[in-house]
Give the backbone structure.
Amino acid sequence: MNIFKQIARFWVNLFRKRRISVLNATDRSEEWHTHLSPASLFAASVSLLLMLFIIILMLVAYTPVLELLPGYRTEANRSRESLVQNIIRLDSMERVMNDMITYNRNIAMIMAGKSPVARTIISSDSTRTSKILVMPSAEDSLLRAQMEGDGPYALAGDGSSSRRALREAVELVTPVEGLVTDHFNIEEGRFGVRIASPSAARLTAIDDGSVIASQWTPESGHQLIIQHRGNLLAIYKNLSQPLVATGQAVRTGELIGYTAESEAGQTKPFELELWHNGKAVDPEGYIVF
């Protein structure tokens, strides 16, 4: 019971108001007074602390007051320098990527016979590309005149077989991935090239054309004869499985069959012969293997 009485007395005293007076030291007269309880005094203290916390938080968040503190400015400078360095690195990476993209596009345009684009710097943090054509120089104009005219290096006109082979080498594609083991040699009775490739490798057409024969011989196994553009006839030998039939039209890079499979640990090399106007020509002059 004594404990409950003490708790009740403490609770009553907590909210009981006290008189706080200010007396004149000379005549002991009261000049000011107020009534406060311990509970109200505690509430006022908590409110004051909360108000100070909010004010300090706003000053730190919205004003540069922290820079006035010793040591903080050095750490801020380090953070700022690190941020600037990271921005520079990102800008450099973007510039290198744009240069690589421009380089690849220029290579593709050159292979397609078009003019490349120039790299121009605009008013921004990064280097970008624009579709502005490169202004031809005097050397470029002279080279174009030699290649487009009637001189010995001209690409147009009748020309020689070497110039025709150069044009065809740009247009024709490699029929199969591999290494050339036997080169073209009419004196040895070899009218084409032999290519060592993996067993049952994919075989594709070197150009647009039409299949004029699909047959099998004891010497060459399955073989395809395809008539391509420019009166160019291609004979694909040593196939294990042709996938096109006589009279079928094929396109450049289209799958037309598979090379011979290995037998007893040996694989017959794939052979390719090219005939132009009824004469055997070197496939390596038309195709880059």
The helical segments are 2-15, 38-62, 72-111, 138-148, 161-171. The longest strand covers residues 232-242. Residues 138-171 form one domain.
